[in-house]
Design goal:
The protein is an alpha/beta fold. Helices cover 41% and strands 18% of the residues. It has helices at residues 3-9, 29-38, 76-87, 102-114, 144-155, 188-201, 214-226, 245-253, 259-267, 273-291, 305-317, and strands at residues 14-19, 45-48, 54-59, 65-70, 90-96, 119-123, 172-177, 205-210, 233-237, 295-299. The strands form 2 sheets. Strands 1-2-5-6-7-8-9-10 form an 8-stranded parallel beta barrel, surrounded by 5 helices. The two termini are 26 Å apart. 36% of the residues are buried. The mean pLDDT is 90.
Length: 318
């Protein structure tokens, strides 16, 4: 089923999850074990992130520098297919602009279509410092809007080359939204206008960047609706687990940590920070469901332990 169909058919609050592929050369067994731990909660879908190549620089003994290109986390397509086959849950692979040509993107989408994966999340992707050397005239998607256009064109049976009897795909396209605005956007109004262009290009639903203050989400939804964006908006949450995240999360994701949460984390013993994060996440979820959020999407790494505690307590109180 498509994500929009799952959201429309829901008769109770939904909770979905997002996981990351294992490091290159590592076994996927641990990740599949995480998914198995999540299955008792009947997730409507599971997102699997994608990662382009990364450029790293290392200093040589002679004082010069060498550029090395690594792809640390391949395997998104295979993991999505394995999860759907083994557990019967819909998967949402992330498809990126950055680091991929339009031809590579089309090949990946064709493969996903063959595998019966009907949902994709279209993202620009992080700037990892990697730039491909491409022949003149090689087409790339320079923005998420262009990527959504490409996927929408395939849904109409239009491929990069004219193909006889080309079969249209039927991808449900998700895109990212930023309640506190994207860090590259000059203001939230501009960012929402950009988001509307993604929706107009064919995006069917929005999943937001993580946030810890629900007021940002409710303001974001209201401004999206005022701008004419009518597709479902799914809030994305992360559970605080360490003091280090007070610095890492704002720097990495350009988000604000509320004073109350920051104070509780700072005062807590290191081993009790997870308890603070769990209580905060439960409160966020209860408020968001009361507000009318169709689903809550949890960003997790490669462990289900903390998120399980949150969902179990939500089920008891719900």
């Amino acid at each position: 089923m498509k994500i929009t169909e799952l959201l429309d058919a829901a008769t109770a609050p939904l909770i979905s999850f997002e996981i990351i592929p294992p490091m290159r050369g590592s076994s996927a067994a641990q990740l599949m074990a995480v998914v198995e731990e999540l299955m008792p909660f009947d997730p409507p879908f599971i997102d699997v992130t994608s990662h382009s190549a990364e450029a790293q620089y290392e200093e040589l003994p002679d004082g010069t520098w060498r550029r090395r290109v690594k792809r640390k986390r391949p395997g998104t397509i295979g993991i999505c297919a394995a999860i759907k086959s083994r557990f019967g849950v819909e998967t949402v692979p992330h498809v990126l602009c950055h680091g991929f040509t339009r031809s590579e993107t089309e090949d990946a989408l064709i493969e996903l279509n063959y595998l019966g994966i009907n949902n994709v999340m279209a993202l620009h992707g992080d700037d990892t410092g990697f730039q491909k050397t491409l022949p003149p005239g090689t087409a790339v998607n320079r923005s998420a809007i262009e990527l959504v256009h490409q996927i929408s064109s395939m849904n109409r049976g239009r491929y990069l080359e004219d193909l006889m009897d080309a079969v249209p795909t039927s991808f449900c396209i998700g895109v990212a939204g930023y309640p506190e605005k994207h860090y590259r956007a000059p203001n939230l109004t501009w960012d929402i206008q950009y988001l509307k262009r993604k929706v107009d290009a064919g995006a069917a639903y929005i999943t937001t960047q993580m946030f810890f203050d629900n007021a940002y989400f409710t303001r974001f939804v209201e401004r999206c609706r005022a701008a004419g964006i009518t597709v479902p908006i799914v809030p994305g949450l992360k559970i605080f687990t360490s003091k280090r995240q007070l610095e890492v999360l704002p720097r990495r994701f350009h988000i604000e940590i509320p004073e109350e949460l920051a104070g509780e984390v700072e005062e807590a013993r290191p081993e009790h920070v997870k308890d603070v994060g769990i209580r905060w996440a439960i409160r966020q979820c209860e408020e968001l469901f009361e507000y009318g959020a169709p689903c809550i999407h949890f960003y997790i790494m490669q462990s289900a332990k903390i998120v399980r505690q949150v969902v179990i307590r939500l089920r008891k109180t719900g």
